[in-house]
Amino acid sequence: MEAIISAIKDAFLGSWSLQLVLGSILLSLVWPTFKYYAKMTAILFVSFMVLVIPIPLFLIKPRWPLNALISGIVACEFIRWLGVEYEIRGTEHINVKNGGVVLLNHQSAIDIVLLSRLLRDFRNIVPVVKKELFYAFPFGIGSYLVGVVFIDRKNTASAKDVMNRESIAINRDNLKLAIFPEGTRHDKDTLLPFKKGSFHVAIDSQSIVQPVIVSKYRFIDHKRKRFGRGRVIVNILPEISMQGKTKEDLNALVEHCQSTMQAEFDALSAEVQQYCHL
Predict the structure, then answer these.
(1) What are the percentages of helix, strand and coil residues in the chain, rounded to 5?
(2) Continuous H helices in the chain
(3) What is the Cα–Cα distance from 246 to 251, expressed in whole angstroms?
(4) Distances in whole angstroms, Cα of residue 70 to Cα of each of 14, 85, 117, 147
């Protein structure tokens, strides 16, 4: 027995990585703030690596959304290991033969993992993100190769030009653009007012708008720096056809989507409370 204990001790003292892992576990148990930063850092690091390591494979068929399929599976398994699981509802409302605009509420930087999870069902979905992320080398290159659309929010003319090109791709390639209409992430109970850019694209392409509501991340408290365990419920609502819609219908469309998504967000966030623990 002494020999076994001595061997374990020697292995531990000789492995800095093992010491780091054990030390991190102990710190997480006694210091919740450390757990918060450790989990957030780990998720973002893994999300970074799963898009960087396969770049040579992405080059075989660049700008193909399904390039990110395996990367997304890895990221989702990792976040599940950290105590977060996804429940996806409404997949029967997905028509992979339709291009259009998918609207999602935006809560956290880890929404990138959720988008990779939705790729399994939508298959032709790509996020629209701020241009600054493209310059996060080499993450930006990997993102570009899986079809991510980058827009310059500070340059309205440039952003419009990009979105006009993507409105053509919606019909040509049956592409679905995943857009956060609130424009910025937040963890409040009330969705921020929707910006109109995504609705302009949908009307211009005469395609569809599809609301996707994500329950509140009740397992994260950014103010108190807590990151526990929990579930995310995602509900995919039926498509809203833009056929025959004009810019005169824009305000009513925005108001309808905002109120519908807020009501569903409230319901899902109340339901998910029982599954989340800080």
Answers:
(1) 55, 15, 30
(2) 2-13, 16-30, 32-52, 55-58, 69-81, 111-122, 139-145, 156-172, 197-205, 250-272
(3) 10
(4) 34, 17, 10, 15
Alpha-carbon distance values, 34 to 26, 29, 219 (Å): 10, 9, 15
Phi, psi of 83 (to 5 degrees): 105, 15
C-alpha dihedral (36, 38, 44, 47), degrees to nearest 10: -120
**In this structure, which amino acid lies at residue 96?**
V
Who has greater pLDDT, 4 or 189? 189
Alpha helices in 154-245 (DSSP H): 156-172, 197-205
DSSP assignment letter at 126 = E
Least confident of 55-64, 131-140, 244-253, 254-263: 131-140
Contact predicate 207/240, CB 8 Å: no
Q: Report whether the peptide linkage leading into residue 211 is cis, meaning its omega lies within 30 degrees of zero.
A: no
Q: What is the DSSP letter of 195?
A: P
Terminal alpha carbon distance of the chain: 40
0.85 cut: is pTM over it?
yes
